[in-house]
Specification:
CATH architecture of the domain at 5-158 and 191-217 and 278-290: 3-Layer(aba) Sandwich
CATH superfamily of the domain at 5-158 and 191-217 and 278-290: NAD(P)-binding Rossmann-like Domain
Number of helices: 12
Distance between the termini: 33 Å
Bound molecules: NADP nicotinamide-adenine-dinucleotide phosphate
Strand content: 15-25%
Strand order of the largest sheet: 3-2-1-4-5-6-11
CATH topology of the domain at 5-158 and 191-217 and 278-290: Rossmann fold
Radius of gyration: 19 Å
Shape: globular
Structural class: alpha/beta
């Protein structure tokens, strides 16, 4: 079956923009709800993508959106969700209660296909070291128990123009003479955002992908120190990197949490990094991906002379 009316909840973000654009380029109709239309500006330019200002935390609005689709993709995820046991209230709302409500309304509306974005590091155990991972675990459990035609994706850290990982370290390197780094030796296997989008599309219509969970990883494993070196040097600001031992890393995260606004790093983020973020097996052939190397892509968007925005990327794809 080919799904032609696709609702992407959380589709205005980094991964959602790549995914919605690719789905739309295939001629599918894509609905992207957002809390504020300005969050989805790039997508406003894509024909076939319908950006809708909506509150997905309102059951009536969510149900109406689901009723217009034949497949639902849930990409909503947050990194800071407050404190609590087993997780803070905002983690519960975004990672567990939202999937519960999506499942409920899909069943009520007779919509059967659900693609759900989780994260590498989710082990299925409530003993996971962070609230982020514990709440993502419970979100997966909701989807698995839904009796819908579900597929779950677990990417490692995702890179690409507009990412909030390499770009963050590039920004820090611009202003800091050296980079004090928590979790410097933790391993990651970064995956390209366009590969994540294409892997999801390659499995969307394939019934063999139903009730399966796919890890999504890139071709190479790096330590966090390697990645920060790449971000700093490619952006023209190579910096000494000073690995912080555990107690200092904890204090750094605590201090960042005390600064008003969204912290750059929280103690929970630090806890997530107690586990390496690498794949447990080669990529599934179902994804039909030849994973893209990080260096040439990162050089393209981190190098100040080549600095491009996601908007530029879209314009160039659209030959504008
Ligand atoms: N990026 C990575 O490296 C990475 C790695 C592993 C897993 N993931 C997972 O992949 C998914 C997408 O990641 P991303 O990097 O694309 O995220 P993103 O750029 O931060 O986008 C998140 C999206 O979720 C929506 N959203 C966030 N909080 C919400 C809330 N409380 N209520 C309603 N909508 C909310 C936002 O919509 P608005 O337009 O309304 O703001 C936005 O469209 C997440 O589940 C994330 O955990 C990402």
């Amino acid at each position: 079956m080919t799904y032609n009316n696709i609702l992407i909840i959380g589709g205005s973000g980094f991964i959602g923009t790549a995914l919605a654009t690719r789905l739309a380029n295939q001629g599918r109709h894509v609905i992207v709800p957002t809390r504020r239309v300005k969050n989805a500006q790039t997508l406003l330019m894509v024909p076939q993508v319908e950006v809708v200002e909506a509150d997905i935390n309102d059951d009536k609005q969510l149900r109406k959106l689901i009723a217009r689709s034949d497949a639902v993709i849930n990409l909503v995820g947050i990194l800071q969700g407050g404190l609590g046991n087993p997780y803070g209230k905002r983690f519960a709302q975004a990672h567990v209660e939202l999937p519960q409500r999506i499942v409920k309304h899909m069943k009520a509306m007779g919509v059967g296909r659900l693609l759900h974005m989780s994260a590498l590091g989710v082990t299925g155990s409530q003993n996971s070291p962070s609230m982020y991972l514990r709440s993502k675990t419970d979100g997966e459990r909701v989807v698995r128990g839904s009796f819908l035609n579900w597929t779950i994706y677990r990417p490692s850290v995702v890179f690409g123009a507009g990412d909030s990982f390499l770009n963050l370290f590039a920004k820090l390197a611009k202003v800091a003479p050296f980079l004090p780094l928590a979790g410097a030796d933790v391993k990651f296997q970064p995956v390209y955002v366009e590969d994540v989008a294409q892997g999801m599309i390659n499995t969307l219509d394939n019934p063999n992908s139903e009730e399966k969970t796919y890890e999504m990883t890139g071709p190479k494993v790096y330590t966090l120190r390697n990645l920060v070196e790449i971000a700093a040097s490619y952006s023209g600001n190579p910096r000494p990197i000073i690995g912080l031992p555990g107690p200092l890393a904890y204090l750094q995260a605590l201090a960042m949490e005390l600064v008003p606004g969204e912290p750059l790093m929280s103690r929970d983020n630090l806890n997530s990094m107690k586990l390496d973020n690498v794949g447990s097996a080669p990529l599934s052939p179902d994804l039909k991906l030849e994973p893209t190397a990080l260096e040439p892509i990162a050089a393209e968007y981190l190098c100040p002379a080549n600095a491009i925005t996601p908007l530029d990327r879209f314009r160039s794809k659209a030959h504008r």
